[in-house]
Design brief:
3 helices, 25% helix, single chain, seven-stranded antiparallel beta sheet, alpha+beta, 252 residues
Length: 252
């Protein structure tokens, strides 16, 4: 065997080992997410209508095996009734029951806003979407409790406007619940947050969670280490995210 043949053999073995390791990580991450979905009752969301209020705005999320209609309703500063609807067909806004003509950038901004609220309210429901890429980061201790740490990124195809966003989730090893999450988003100048579950309510067999919302004083701090920063008291609480008047109706 020549030294060149040996070098190629070693390289091939290393690549094989790396691929095998990545596959194992993905498989482990998938099993952890699947257990969390069951613990949260997420499969019930496949055919359901969920309504709730967040900071005075009414939200509604209808899902029917892939088809979806999300909406929010509120009054603006002039007292006009605003009704936004995001569905598989696109986005529409009505103002006092009259459809509004909007430039594309406004449509996109309002669509992202509605989608983001629904996304976080129903987590971990969306973590098996086709564009989701999961990686197992290992175990962690937060407040003396054992957690699995999962990183989520997105493929560009199907990942939407925020396909470059990154998320870290902490799933309890025994309860399988998603008790903490961190995210780093790129839109509108970017930013990152860490969320700690503050309150839990079960409605219709589905777990809904409120959060304390934190930010790091150092904007370049990696979100993978937000659990350590949280334990060390180096995160600043900036808001609370509470879902009020949650209701769930199963579709026939």
């Amino acid at each position: 065997m020549t030294k060149y043949t040996f070098a190629w053999l070693v390289l091939g073995l290393l690549l094989f080992a790396a691929c095998s390791g990545n596959k194992t990580q993905r498989s482990e991450a998938q099993a952890i997410v699947d257990a969390a979905l069951e613990a949260h009752g997420s499969p019930k969301l496949n055919k359901s209508v969920v309504t709730f209020k967040l900071r005075g705005t009414q939200y509604r999320a209808l899902r029917d095996n892939g088809a979806f209609v999300y909406s929010r309703t509120f009054s603006d500063s002039t007292g006009q009734r605003i009704h936004d609807v995001l569905s598989n067909s696109g986005f529409k806004r009505t103002v006092d029951e009259v459809e509004a003509e909007l430039p594309e950038e406004k449509k996109q901004a309002y669509s992202n806003s509605v989608n983001a609220v629904i996304y976080f309210a129903l987590l971990p429901y969306f973590l098996n979407d086709a564009a989701v890429q999961k990686a197992y980061l290992g175990e962690a201790q937060v407040k003396g409790e054992p957690y699995h740490k999962i990183k989520v990124t997105f493929t560009q195809e199907g990942g939407g406007e925020g396909f470059q966003d990154q998320y870290i989730y902490w799933f309890h090893k025994d309860r399988h619940t998603m008790d903490y999450l961190a995210y780093d988003f790129q839109e509108n100048g970017g930013g990152s947050r860490f969320r700690e579950v503050s309150n839990v309510q079960e409605v219709g067999g589905i777990r809904f969670q409120d959060y304390h919302n934190y930010k790091a004083t150092d904007k370049d701090f990696p979100i993978e280490n937000y659990d350590r920063a949280f334990e060390a008291g180096k995160l600043e609480k900036v808001s609370e995210i509470n879902l009020d008047e949650v209701q769930v109706r199963e579709l026939e």
